[in-house]
Amino acid sequence: MYFAGAFEALEEARVRYLVVGGVAVVLHGFVRATGDLDIFVDLERENVERFLSVVKAQGYLPKPPVPLEDFADPEKRRSWVEEKGMLVFSLFHQERQHELVDVFVVERIPFEEAYARRKIVNADGITVSLVSLRDLITLKRLAGRPQDREDLKALESKLERENG
Hints:
The structure is a single chain. The protein has a single domain, classed as Beta Polymerase, domain 2. The protein has 7 helices and 7 strands. The strands form 2 sheets. A 5-stranded mixed β-sheet has the order 1-2-5-4-3. Strand 4 and strand 5 form a beta hairpin.
């Protein structure tokens, strides 16, 4: 898992985050290809600054032509959403450009509530904060893309079995 170093660094820096998207689907037990890591971070300024320190130290740069530090500015994030329709801030690794990280620019669901419901998992010996199954289903419904609809079938089936 090429994100292992990032997960370790996020945990060590005490960044409040949740893994969402395709990696979350995999960590919830499904086989699925995914090319990026989608994460949801607590947008409180100090947490965002810790997050940015980690991704910078790990070698990630923003795909949009803006300074990495702009992500810490709530007004800039708001303008990205309102003026550009941006939902995620995309990062790529400067040496391994296939390593992509997408970070939510806005709270699609309330972070505090989702964080309280998170699942702590061990992935290859690394602690990962994983979005709950119910919250992942909610996020997939909100996204509504073809792959999300496919993921929903499997995730909803698992939820039904768990609630059986």
